[in-house]
Design brief:
Elements: E1 2-3, H1 4-9, E2 16-17, H2 19-26, H3 30-39, E3 45-47, E4 50-54, H4 55-63, H5 77-81, H6 83-97, E5 100-105, H7 119-125, H8 130-142, E6 152-153, E7 159-167, E8 170-180, H9 189-199, H10 203-207, H11 218-256
Parallel strand pairs: 1-3
Antiparallel strand pairs: 2-4, 3-4, 5-8, 6-7, 7-8
Length: about 260
C-alpha cells in the first residue's frame, strides 16, 4: 500500500483501476479487495478515502505470482492441458483430417494414444518393439529442420507429417498426422518383408494389412498439410490460455489466503 503523493513522486503513468474493476478482474467481493489492499497484498494507493489500483502493477503482480511461469521441466504440453484434454483434441483432429493423429512432446514421445489409427499401424503395434520404432519415426520428425510440415516416409512405410506446438517462445510438442499411403502403394512382397524385418514383426503382420492404410489423393494430402499448422496454433493458444488462467487462479488463491496474524502491542 502507498499513498497518492508517493505514487505521484514515482512519476507513474499507470491507469488507476477502481475497486469494482478489480472485483470484475479477480472475481472476488468488495470486502476481499479492501482487505488485500489494507494488508499490502494487493498493489494499491489511497486517493482521498478511496482505494485505487495501478493497472500495470496489478497486471505484473498477478502475472508474476506462482504458477504464471512454470519451470522448464513442468511447462510442457501435458502439464499445460492434461491427458484428457489432449486425447479429446487428438481424437477430433483424427476425424477432421481423415488420418491417424498423435500428439507428442517435442522429443517425439507420445502424449496421447493414436487417434483414428490405420489397420496397418494397429496390426504391427501389437508386437513388442514395434512401438519403439514408431516413436523413432516421430523423433525423426521432431528433428526435421523444416518448420512447415512435409510428408515423410516412416518406418512403417506410410507417410507422416508434423507441425510444432509452442508455448510462448518454447517448442513443447507436435501434432503428427499419418497412416497415409505413399505413391506407389502397396509395396512389393520383398519391400513388405523388409518393412516387417525392420519393425521386428512377422511378415504376415505387414503383408496382411497393406490395404489398411488411408488412401488420400494429392489434394487431400495438401489439405492435411494446410490444417496441421492451424491445429498446432490452436493447441499453442490453448496451452498459453491455460497457463495464464492457472497462474491467475494460483495468484488469487495466494492473495485471498488469510493474512499472517499481527502481533498486538
Amino acid at each position: 500500500m502507498q499513498d497518492m503523493q508517493a505514487f505521484d513522486r514515482q512519476g507513474a503513468s499507470s491507469i488507476l483501476l477502481t475497486t469494482q474493476d478489480v472485483q470484475r478482474l479477480m472475481k472476488v467481493d468488495r470486502s476481499t479487495v479492501y482487505r488485500m489492499a489494507e494488508d499490502g497484498r494487493l498493489p494499491a494507493v489511497k486517493v482521498g478515502r478511496q482505494w485505487r489500483f495501478p493497472s500495470d502493477r496489478l497486471h505484473d503482480f498477478l502475472s508474476c505470482r506462482p504458477g504464471a511461469a512454470l519451470p522448464e521441466d513442468s511447462a510442457g504440453l501435458a502439464a499445460s492441458l492434461g491427458p484428457g484434454a489432449l486425447q479429446a483434441v487428438s481424437d477430433f483432429l483424427g476425424e477432421a483430417f481423415g488420418a491417424m493423429v498423435v500428439l507428442t512432446d517435442i522429443q517425439g514421445q507420445p502424449l496421447t494414444a493414436p487417434s483414428n489409427p490405420c489397420g496397418l499401424f494397429s496390426a504391427v503395434h501389437r508386437y513388442p518393439g514395434a512401438a519403439d520404432r514408431c516413436v523413432e519415426g516421430w523423433q525423426g520428425l521432431a528433428a526435421e529442420v523444416d518448420l512447415e510440415p512435409q510428408w515423410r516416409v516412416t518406418p512403417l512405410g506410410f507417410l507422416c507429417a508434423r507441425s510444432l506446438i509452442r508455448r510462448g517462445e518454447r517448442l513443447v510438442g507436435m501434432v503428427v498426422a499419418g497412416g497415409i499411403a505413399p505413391e506407389p502403394w502397396p509395396p512389393s512382397p520383398a519391400e513388405a518383408a523388409a518393412l516387417a524385418e525392420n519393425l521386428g514383426v512377422p511378415s504376415e503382420a505387414v503383408q496382411g494389412h497393406l490395404s489398411e492404410v488411408f488412401q488420400r489423393d494429392p489434394r487431400e494430402r495438401d489439405r492435411i498439410l494446410h490444417l496441421l499448422p492451424r491445429s498446432a496454433a490452436f493447441l499453442s493458444r490453448l496451452a498459453a490460455e491455460h497457463g495464464r488462467l492457472a497462474g491467475r487462479l494460483e495468484a488469487i488463491a495466494a492473495l485471498v489466503a488469510d493474512p499472517p496474524q499481527r502481533s498486538e502491542t
